[in-house]
Amino acid sequence: MIRPITKCDFELFWPTFSAIIEHQETYAFAPNMTVEQAYDLWCEQPLKTFVYEEQGEQLGSYYLKNNAAGPGSHVCNCGYMVAEQARGKGIARQLCEHSQQQAIALGFQAMQFNSVVSTNAVAVQLWKKLGFSIVGRVPKAYLHRQLGYVDTLVMYKWLID
């Protein structure tokens, strides 16, 4: 169900991606981004990008990339998206668990989420359940479409026992 994404997969996932960035509730991506810009950002720039496919439908995706270089290169960063009609079915959990396995296989020792929108309670709760801690709060760092300026959270997990 989770496999490396292809350009065709991303084009099929584009309506989900586009809807998420247009809502301006969880991602600090330009809401008018083109499919080409989005593909570059989500699939070309990261080290790896995966898609969650079920019965020929692309229901979720994540990217995995370095969070920093040099002395910080042991920490990775990921971003996740799940189609609206597939939320609440455990797909984000599966994507996050898969990303942690991939990160370890790639030699990363920790994972950091740099900008989790604090009002995204479902994501914050899930990341906590999966062992992430809130290690920082950035006041009013995200302009939420409906709520105005809200805080973002920095969440972190050490992956190696």
From TrEMBL:
InterPro entries named among the record's database cross-references = Acyl_CoA_acyltransferase (IPR016181), GNAT_dom (IPR000182), Mito_N-acetyltransferase (IPR052742)
Query: Which CDD domains does its entry note?
Result: NAT_SF
Entry superkingdom: Bacteria
Which intervals hold domain N-acetyltransferase?
1-160
Name the PANTHER family for this protein.
ACETYLTRANSFERASE, GNAT FAMILY, N-ACETYLTRANSFERASE ACA1
Q: What is this protein called?
A: GNAT family N-acetyltransferase
Organism in which the protein naturally occurs: Oceanisphaera pacifica
Taxonomic placement: Bacteria, Pseudomonadati, Pseudomonadota, Gammaproteobacteria, Aeromonadales
